[in-house]
């Protein structure tokens, strides 16, 4: 079964897509990544999306319009990718998170938009979507769902290993001693991106190659103020998002400091914030192998900072696990879609805090009858490879 995974993450910069061709034999699942791409949002659509996100006020009319426009953007990417490889059997779309409702230590709701019916209509294949809420109804945080893939890829590795994703928010899955723990650590690219966009420092909306951060210095007082955030002291499982870590959050800290700080110093300090918060948790968990993915792994200052702060750990890109770092989350979505269609729960309870595993998502039929494959008991092993032509 060829499944196309689609996602736009907490950086809100575009749509990642990956097609995985899955084969299963007695619980052993092999997945070949046969296509992958990343397509930026159009400038106007991204501006409207960012303007509607918390803490900004918006209207139901704007939410409805964005739901359609983002759904159409996802459908366009899906149709192009599917056509390039001669079609797909199914699609799994994460859509775009616009709100993640957390109250204290509990997640109560989550909202992803990007109407999947547009994808089903363009591609003609069934679409699995709205994948996070089922985990929340089972007591989980709906995040990090990537812990399901991480556990399969890290399973059987000696010692304590972890997979780190540096998207808008940093999250980590820790596997060792017959247990799995996963949670959101804090901001990775979210705050840096917000400052870059606010000051117009890069039309791409992020600190490319850490060019801005390299020209600045760490402001220790500002860094300590950021590190004092109570979120970091919460016990896992926990989740967060741009509802908490946004441009207004940075402004509040700058105002409280009571002095002007060069914008390059702010960017450098926020980059160091990610290094410090991640390194602190890696140290505490006794991790000796760390596989990194997400946009932040392409930031040399961030990745070099982690390696310098973690001399006791082997820090590698997720490519070594068979999941290319730039398309890992899209691969996850393809896997979740395949699991849902085969009746397999795609939750690791230790990864999200859910009481029990659950089958995720809602299915939108394609243009023909919806015919589901026979259910499969589960996945014992997962092997990922990348096609040489992708």
From TrEMBL:
InterPro entries: Anhydro_N_Ac-Mur_kinase, ATPase_NBD. It comes from the Bacteria. Pathway: Amino-sugar metabolism; 1,6-anhydro-N-acetylmuramate degradation; Cell wall biogenesis; peptidoglycan recycling. Its EC number is 2.7.1.170. It catalyses: 1,6-anhydro-N-acetyl-beta-muramate + ATP + H2O = N-acetyl-D-muramate 6-phosphate + ADP + H(+). Keywords: ATP-binding, Carbohydrate metabolism, Kinase, Nucleotide-binding, Transferase. ATP binds at residues 9-16. It is an enzyme of class 2 (transferase). GO terms for molecular function: kinase activity. Belongs to the anhydro-N-acetylmuramic acid kinase family. NCBIfam families: PRK09585.2-6 (NF007146). Catalyzes the specific phosphorylation of 1,6-anhydro-N-acetylmuramic acid (anhMurNAc) with the simultaneous cleavage of the 1,6-anhydro ring, generating MurNAc-6-P. Is required for the utilization of anhMurNAc either imported from the medium or derived from its own cell wall murein, and thus plays a role in cell wall recycling. This is Anhydro-N-acetylmuramic acid kinase.
